[in-house]
Amino acid sequence: MKIAMLRASNNRNGTRMTIDISSDIHIDLHSDILTELWPRLTRRARRLSRSREEAEDLAQEAVLRLCQALRGGAQITAPDRYAMILLHNLARQRWRQRRETESYEDDMIGTQPEAPGRIACAELQAAILRLPEDQAALMSLVAAGETSPKQLAAQVGVPKGTIMSRLARARASLRRDLGLLQDSPVSELL
Known about the structure:
The chain has helices at 32-48, 52-71, 79-98, 115-129, 133-143, 149-156, 160-178, and strands spanning 4-11, 14-21, 25-29. By secondary structure, it is mainly α. The chain has two domains: 4-98, no CATH class; 115-188, Arc Repressor Mutant, subunit A (Orthogonal Bundle). Strands 1-2-3 form a three-stranded antiparallel beta sheet, covered by helices on one side. Helix 4 (115-129) crosses helix 7 (160-178) and helix 6 crosses helix 7 (160-178).
C-alpha cells in the first residue's frame, strides 16, 4: 500500500502543494486548481467519514488518484468534478469494506418454507376432487372462502341441515383420506 502525504505551504508566489508518494515518487504541484479543490474535498470528506483523520485520509487518497491519473496522461477536463467523484467512490468502497455481516444459522431463519404448505394444499385439493360430487362442490365453496352454512344453502339450493350433514361427511372423508385424526380441528382441513 502506498503512503501519501500532502503538504501545503504558503509562500510569496501563492500556495504550493507537495505530494510525497512513498519514498521513490515525489510530485510537486503548484496549481490553483488543487489549492482551490483541497478545502472542498476535505469538507466533503468530513461529511462522508466518521472521523477527521478518516476524512483527511479520504481526501488525500482522492488527490493522490487525481494526480496519478493526470501524470498517467489522462485527459481530465474537469478535475474538481473528477476528484469529487473519486472521493465519493472511495467513501463507498470503504463503507462496503466496513459493513459487518452476520452469518445465519438454521434456527435464525425468520420465514417458514412454503413448500410443505403448498404440498398440503395440493394434497387437499386432490382429496376434495375424490369426494362425491355434492360434497366436493360444497368443499370447493368453503375453500373459496364461503363458510356460512346459511349462505352455502342459498347458493346450492338445499336446506341448511343438508349442508351441515354433507359438510360433516366430506370432512370425515377428508380426514380419513389425508390420514388425520378423527377429532383434528376443521382448520387443518380448511
